[in-house]
Amino acid sequence: MYPDHTPQRAVEVHHPTPIPPPVVHPAPVVPVQPGTVPTVASVVLPDGRVVTGYAIDAVRPEPVTAKLAVSRVAVNVALGGVGFLAVCGGLLLLTSFIAALTAFIGQLIILAAVIFGGWIAVQVLGPSGHKGGTTVNIRRAVFKRNHFHG
């Protein structure tokens, strides 16, 4: 198994030590006397055997309180009221949105008028000096024999 030039090693074999199972001591049985002595009942089976034992009362669940009946008309009226309120709220929001949009468009129109009016005012009231070019006053022009005279 090992090559010739390696020394042999001693192999130790470890065997597991079994763990003993724990010792279980049964709990002492203490007889308990019931508060009242139950009645002993005997039952005769169909094959003739007799079984005797204590009768145990079945545990009865708490009585369930009756649910109040809700009429379909009341449910439909309530659902209709909720739907009506939802529609009214939606219409109120839509009306508010339309009013805000109308006011916004009006503000944009006023802003455009102010800007355009300012531009016109600068053009009219600005310096009137001529910066070159020819100015012709057509209303004072006189036409004679197909010639233009100024």
Characteristics of this structure?
150 residues, alpha+beta, two-stranded antiparallel ribbon, 1 helix, 36% helix, 11% strand
Mean pLDDT: 79
**What composes the largest sheet?**
2 strands, antiparallel
Measure the end-to-end span: 131 Å
Strand content: 5-15%
The helix content, as a percent range, equals 25-40%
> How large, in whole angstroms, is the Cα Rg?
56 Å
Briefly note the structural class of the backbone: alpha+beta
Strand and helix order = EEHEE
* E-strand count: 4
Organism: Streptomyces althioticus
Protein name: Integral membrane protein
Transmembrane segments: 73-94, 100-122
Keywords: Membrane, Transmembrane, Transmembrane helix
Secondary-structure topology with pairs:
Layout: E1 40-44, E2 50-54, H1 72-125, E3 142-144, E4 147-149
Antiparallel strand pairs: 1-2, 3-4
Can you walk me through this structure?
The chain crosses the membrane at residues 73-94, 100-122. This is Integral membrane protein. Keywords: Membrane, Transmembrane, Transmembrane helix. It is elongated and about 145 Å long. It is of the alpha+beta class and 150 residues long. The chain is 36% helix and 11% strand. The mean pLDDT is 79. It is built from one helix and four strands; from the N terminus they run ββαββ. Strands 1-2 form a two-stranded antiparallel sheet. It has a two-stranded antiparallel ribbon with strand order 3-4.
Task: Kindly summarize this structure in a few lines.
The chain is built from one helix and four strands; from the N terminus they run ββαββ. With 150 residues, the chain is an alpha+beta fold.
